[in-house]
Amino acid sequence: MNYGMIFIETLVYVVKEGKVLLIRKKRGLGAGYYNGIGGKVEDGENVVSAAIRECREEVGITPRNLEWMGLLEFWNYEDDRVESVHFVHVFLARDFDGTPRESSEAEPIWFGIDEIPYNNMWEDDIMWLPKVLSDKRVYGRFEFDRWRLIKSEVYEVIPSK
Ligand SMILES: Nc1nc2c([nH]c(=O)n2[C@H]2C[C@H](O)[C@@H](COP(=O)(O)OP(=O)(O)OP(=O)(O)O)O2)c(=O)[nH]1
After folding, report:
1. Which candidate, 65, 106, 121, 142, has a CA 20 to 30 Å from the CA of 148?
2. 29 CA → ligand 1 middle, Å
3. Where is the Nudix hydrolase domain (predicted)?
């Protein structure tokens, strides 16, 4: 959903047999980084249907039973001006249909939970993704200047699951 500079987005982490499915993003913002599967919610979609569509488009799988794990806010500044604000809903999926395949946007790769390549990921991920993968819900607010992290706040959502 694009309200000018405000975006509603999704991120899905598929976890199965002690591994998490990440993508290596091939283009756009964050290209070259490993990330969960996701993108912008489009007009007429709800957040869950967008999360499912992005999984199908990016890696050809359909997640089952998405569990909502939290909300992240990414505020990107250019000097003192807000360039864009991204509200990102994070989900876990413990099962899926289909077989992960590469697309023009993403290459899917499984990582052991202890082998997640945080130094090739967005800087904030190490502050909240371990909590999500330990089944904790999170709320995070991050400020960036030209997409370099300058401020962070992370909370576990209480009551937890
Ligand atoms: N893990 C993580 N994900 C982030 C961070 N910042 C950020 O925008 N993302 C995610 C949220 C969205 O899932 C994704 C945005 O991807 P995108 O702009 O390519 O969206 P899209 O697939 O709809 O692409 P497009 O059609 O606009 O090209 O990146 C971050 O700091 N950490």
Report:
1. 106
2. 7
3. 1-134
